[in-house]
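Before the break, one more example. Copy the sequence into your notebook; we will annotate it together after we see the structure.
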Amino acid sequence: MIKKILKYVKRFFILIVGISSLYLVNLFLMKPFSIDHFLGKELVVDLIDSPEALTYIGIFDRFNWITKHNSRLTIPSDDDINEEIESLEKSIKTLYKYKDSRLTDVQKNTKKIAIFDYENNLKELKEFPHHDYPLNQIGGIHLNTIEFLSNMHPIRNESEAEDFIKRANLIKKVYEGVLADLEDQADAGIFPPEFVYDHVINQLSEFISYDYNEHPLYTQFLKKVKELNLDQDKEKQFELQIKNAIDESVTPGFRTLKDFMMRTKRYANKNHGIWSQPNGDEYYKLRIRTYTTTDYSPEEIHQMGLKEVNRISSRMREILTELGYDKNKTVGELMNELNEDPQFLYEDTPNRKEIVVSDYTEMMNEAIKVMTDYFHTMPKSEVIVKVVPEYSEQTAARGYYQPPALDGSRPGVFYANLYDIKQTPKYTMRTLTYHEATPGHHHQIAHSLENEDLTLYRRFGYFTSAFSEGWALYAERLALEVGLAEDPYDELGILQSELFRAIRLVVDTGMHYKKWTREEAMEYMKANTGLSDTEVRVEIERYIVWPGQALSYKVGMIKILELREKAKKELGDKFNIKDFHSAVLDHGNPPLFIVEEMVEKMIEESRG
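Here is what the structure looks like once it is written out:
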């Protein structure tokens, strides 16, 4: 079942990867009937059931001779969805059996989080099993498979190279399983919009037509094999094996998916919002609840967005006026001009990407040094900057983060999309650095991974973008407040980023609730942000295939700022920014209602 694969992809690739052997030992030292033991056991069982997740984690590779996970992929089956529904129903019943009177305060919160998460997942599986788009232009299974094998599968020895070949030979079977899910989705009358078909068909066509020297599986595999210093005969054997896997499994698998897309394209949704799918309005409400961890209505979020757009635009207008820009032009028009201004753009030289990566790295290292004064602890894990792979750069977001492995085998990675020169105006680079690296995603995620005070479930079992993306957007504001963006143009970049997230509240609800078209949403975003045409298109198309997720950033940021202001007001001179940040960050990746409880507790303890 494709949802099961994507569940692990989102949880472990986009979010958290890494678990220590010691923590597994601790699991079995817990009281056998405690809620922590129950949830930890459930998580471990889920992990073991996913060979992709075990590879993401890395630490289990030493046991690969037993698990054989590095040579396997998850093959979707018809029974997956019913099995997961049955498992969730059983788990929810068990959770309700734990009486609050017998739980610690931490365990009470853990129970709230787990029930909130499990019930949302159960509702989605039972009522909306086919409302996502397994094949889409930014996170489709066809892209995830290539990225997983190219970037995540380790090749540190001959055995792991052999496992890579075995996995490549399974891709056709994986996609045949995916095809069954796509057929079920079609039977339910759910088809993605036309532009999704166009993008995915183009992507699949490129993969199918690649020469070996262009194919990422071939080039990445051979690059890693050469680093093993094997004899020439063995290298040649591996080269023949990967070519055969591409010809017999990978390319036929892509053709299977492309044939489905070509065959069903005439049924493509003429609309863009999820409202146009069967029972789409109710699905969108569930997405809002899941992603924002609130019960806000689409209308409330839309109005929140409009209010924030006006507030942020006013401040940007003040700065632009002070810098001498035309008062008669809108903020969007002026930011468009800044986007085109050569002084803020890199020259299109052969080494442009290397120069940009170096500049990002310098900004990141500066932030790490400054932020030590605002947190009780800093992450131990390293973070580096890499360029988004060429095969996905045309449709990928401007930047994203990949977490580290706790065994030290892989650092955290801030991926920067350098496809379009205009996508990287210099005045916008600092805010992206603070969002993706420090004090944003890397700081928050690595902090949680390294926090051995957290139970297994609180450390790895639950994720919400309301918290992680809310924190990352708050991190941009924090960087501005502590003086990391003293240049007014850099402040404009940070404000533009915040405006961008406020506009998301407007356009996401606009398309999925108020029935805006893709073009109307693009026009609104372009007019108000000054972002490039390329970036506007990529972002709007992302929101269409990922309903509700874009709301989490600003909703989360607003809640964290509200809680900080409350703590400042109530504590006065006793307010300590380090204590506040610990109250927010020390509890894993919780829903916003748990964050509020933790800040309230910090306030009470600080009063003395």
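The first strand starts at residue 383 and ends at 387. The mean pLDDT is 91. Try to locate both features in your own notes.
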